[in-house]
Design goal:
The complex is a heterodimer of chains A (320) and B (336). Chain A is of the alpha/beta class and 320 residues long. Chain A has helices at residues 2-23, 60-68, 84-89, 104-109, 121-124, 127-133, 145-159, 162-183, 209-216, 240-246, 260-272, 274-277, 280-283, 292-295, 303-314, and strands at 34-39, 45-49, 55-57, 114-118, 137-140, 190-197, 200-204, 220-221, 235-237, 250-255, 287-289. Chain B has 336 residues and is mainly alpha-helical. Chain B is built from 13 helices and no strands. The chains are: A alpha/beta (320), B mainly alpha (336). Chains A and B meet through helix 1, helix 4, helix 5, helix 6 and strand 9 of A and helix 1, helix 3, helix 4, helix 7 and helix 8 of B.
């Protein structure tokens, strides 16, 4: 019996060694059609087709931005975090799974010539396989407002529909200009942006997306003076003492889910907790829950609408 | 063959070893032949021969599915062996690879990369491996006192795990917006695993199998207790040291390519013990086979049940394995 086991193992070892060597072979893809070199957000230089015909988007904002640049995709993420209009358009397009774990087999089977992903670990994890398959992937991130416009413009060059992209950018810029004008000349308000779930609240720093929008409108983010431990942080845990000392004029709440219960729980806590109760923002009823679709996930092409909404909350009509 | 006084269960156990190997082969074939995309058997065979027509199906089979199944099987083998060894050496039924600090060390190291430098995700296996070994080294240093005492090792392991766990929690709190990127890794899974990962883990699996083959006698004797083992002429301290290092290497290599897959290392040894008894000569190969089978089957199911959406394999493994384990535990396995 022991001999048999040893034999079995020997056979297994030889087999696995054979596999090891076989795995060393790599397919040489013809790079002739890959003409354009693009740098994605993670700093990789990627050769992409001049005008990709079969694009797959792995997340909602990339899909949204690519359509805003006049493109279409052949594969899409399993998500509903898109505008109703866009959802209707992409209804028939095959799904490739959740953004956080796209199905590689489906992905490759669709024969894409470009994949649009996010600069997050779970998409970096796809690189080894996609590179072997000769499929280029651009990993994007949208940490602030300018990056949204930049991405639309660069997608415009890919779709070959620069006019459509420019039109989308112009539409957003117009909205933002109007919002900025609305805020101009009014005394700056002090804002606290809270990012949280019912059990834990964090404070959004100016480096967060919403923090960036708030700063664009000339408001003061009370977290400004907080020094983050690393430059990559965009939220810090909320310190009630700090907030009480800073006494913000407006409190904005972003929740992880579209769940209304969080809002209620939060409002209740503000109304009953002695420290919150006496804050200017709570007394003057200037505590607002920001809509999930515009602020919890990246608003993408809706960023203009998000900025307009922020402007109206920070500087409501009649208050100067 | 039949010696006088041969264990009456030996026939049954021999069958378990052979059956385990067959089942493993079957589950690997199943894993390769099923997936989110249907590929015919003919094309699967073609892709193995690496013909010139390198189509998508070839990509799917050769560069996605086979490496993934292989990594799953190897991870299953490593975790199961590590579990058997640790439970045997420490004589503690709750010992799993986490106990020597492997899980927390790898977890913290991987998380630092995943959160702070997501663009460097490709170095995660190396970093996680280093983190796992660093944590194990720390546990060793803390528990060393004229040799390794099991209880001290376990307590040092708990302390080190708590320390590294604290680091992980701190990262999660201060980067709560980026936690999403780490969840997959923390849950453990095989998505996007390629031949590189197979190559990374293979040497340790070979080492582990060889070590298990060589050391199985000692492991059985260690089970009798330190005094009895010493009486039988086993250099207890040295053997224990060797085994713990081996287990740490096995677990660290598994965790570095698969993420934090718990469960296999804890449950498979018990499952094997219920089926074949405590004789390490049988237990080690059987546990290796069962571990690989469990991971490969669970990962296959995770890929296809809700295709194209994938379920984290750790979740599925717990759902498949825990009830089966409880069933065995309640029923018991009777040997004639």
């Amino acid at each position: 019996m022991i001999k048999l086991t040893k034999w079995l193992m020997l056979v297994l070892l030889i087999m696995s060694l054979a596999f090891l060597f076989a795995g060393g072979k790599q397919e040489k893809k013809d790079a002739g059609v890959l003409k354009r070199e693009m740098q994605d957000f993670s700093g990789r230089h990627v050769l992409v087709p001049e005008q990709p015909q079969r694009v797959i988007a792995l997340n909602a904002s990339n899909l949204d931005l690519y359509y805003a640049a006049g493109g279409t995709v052949i594969g899409r993420p399993t998500t509903v975090a898109l505008s109703a209009e866009l959802l209707e358009k992409i209804k028939e397009i095959p799904q490739v799974g959740e953004t956080s774990s796209p199905n590689l087999e489906n992905l490759v089977a669709l024969k894409p010539d470009l994949v649009l992903g996010v600069d997050v670990a779970f998409h970096h994890a796809l690189l080894p396989v996609l590179e072997k398959a000769g499929i280029p992937i651009l990993l994007q991130a949208l940490p602030d407002y300018p990056s949204v416009l930049r991405t639309i413009t660069s997608y415009g060059t890919l779709t070959g529909n620069q006019d459509k992209a420019a039109e989308s950018v112009a539409r957003i810029e117009k909205q933002v200009q109007q919002a900025k004008k609305w805020c101009e000349g009014k005394p700056p308000v002090r804002v606290l942006v809270i990012w949280g779930s019912p059990e834990s609240f964090s404070m959004a720093l100016p480096t967060s997306f919403t923090g960036n929008l708030v700063a664009m409108l000339g408001a003061t983010n009370i977290s400004e003076s907080q020094t983050p431990v690393t430059a990559k942080m965009s939220v810090v845990p909320l310190s009630l003492e700090y907030v009480a000392k800073e006494n913000p004029d407006v409190i904005l709440l972003i929740t992880h889910g579209a769940d209304e219960r969080v809002n209620e729980k939060f409002k209740k806590e503000l109304a009953t907790h002695p420290a919150w109760k006496n804050m200017g923002a709570v007394k003057n009823q200037r505590v607002h829950k920001l809509p999930y679709s515009l602020f919890a996930v990246n608003p993408g092409t809706q960023v203009g609408t998000a900025v307009e909404l922020l402007a109206s909350l920070l500087y409501p009509e009649g208050k100067s | 063959m039949k010696a006088i006084g041969a264990d009456p269960r030996s026939a049954f156990r021999n069958w378990m070893v052979v059956g385990g190997a067959m089942l493993l082969l079957l589950s690997i074939l199943l894993g390769i032949s099923t997936g989110a995309v249907q590929v015919g058997i003919g094309e699967i065979l073609d892709s193995l021969r690496w013909t010139q027509l390198a189509g998508e199906n070839q990509q799917i089979i050769y560069n996605i599915r086979i490496p993934r199944v292989m990594v799953g099987a190897l991870v299953g083998i490593n975790l199961a062996l590590a579990g058997v060894i640790l439970q045997g050496v420490l004589r503690n039924p709750l010992a799993d690879p986490g106990i020597v600090g492997v899980t927390s060390g790898a977890g913290l190291a991987a998380m630092v990369v995943l959160i702070l430098w997501p663009e460097r995700t490709f170095i995660v296996p190396v970093v996680a491996f280093a983190g796992a070994l660093a944590a194990t080294g720390l546990v060793f240093l803390l528990s060393w006192q004229n040799g390794i005492h099991p209880l001290r090792l376990i307590l040092a392991g708990v302390a080190v795990s708590a320390f590294f766990g604290g680091g992980m929690s701190a990262l999660m709190v201060f980067h709560s917006d980026k936690v999403q990127g780490t969840v997959n890794w923390l849950a453990g899974g095989f998505q996007g695993r390629s031949w590189d990962h197979v190559r990374m883990i293979m040497p340790y699996t070979l080492l582990g199998l060889a070590g298990a083959l060589y050391g199985s006698r000692y492991l059985t004797i260690l089970n009798l207790g330190d005094d009895a083992a010493k009486g039988l002429g086993v250099p207890v301290e040295r053997v224990r040291f060797f085994f713990i290092i081996l287990a740490a290497l096995l677990a660290a290599s598994a965790v570095s390519v698969a993420g934090l897959l718990g469960f296999v290392g804890l449950i498979v040894p018990h499952l094997t013990r219920l089926l074949v008894g405590v004789d390490s000569e049988y237990m080690l190969p059987c546990a290796a086979a069962f571990g690989a089978i469990l991971v490969v089957v669970a990962d296959t199911a995770a890929r296809v049940i809700f295709r194209p959406v994938e379920i984290p394999v750790g979740v599925l493994m717990a759902f498949l394995g825990a009830p089966f384990f409880l069933h065995l535990l309640r029923k018991g396995v009777r040997h004639k």
